[in-house]
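ok so I'm stuck.
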Amino acid sequence: MHLKTVYVTVGTTRFDALINAITSESALKSLQQRQCRKLILQHGNSEPVPVAESGLISQKYGIQLEQYTFRPNIEDIKASDLIIGHAGAGTCMDILSNGKAGLIVVNDELMDNHQQELATQLASEQYLYTCKPSQLAVQLASLDFASLRAYESANENMLKFVNALDELMAKRWTHSATK
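replied:
not stuck anymore, here's the structure
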């Protein structure tokens, strides 16, 4: 799967480890190998990538770097082939509800890490992948993002259940009416 546009979000937090991991030489090489042409960083309260480094990323890897602190991100999400984000519930739902491939990077420096539980559960159901910042480059190089399951919202699941129940009841009613 080609990853022409990759969107990285840390949400409202400070997650320097994620920003550093995605701009590391090994991660940038992995993105380059997957034909990434644009990397959008929503760095939140983390330090932005210096302008000089941004230029080097473009020259060396052919990846245009765009970054910002905060802004509405729905257009970035829709335009991206892969979303890499912290394990906040809002970020996870944005990925799933927009039908995007996702790689959730767990901030292992947090004390009470409820994010790990959420990321692990969604990964076990094959809706997205999860890793730690130190694993990001290897995961980018090796994961098959096309194999992730599509997420169905609760409304769609409920509608399927109701339709199945209706079909079952119709069959039973037809069967009992013919007796």
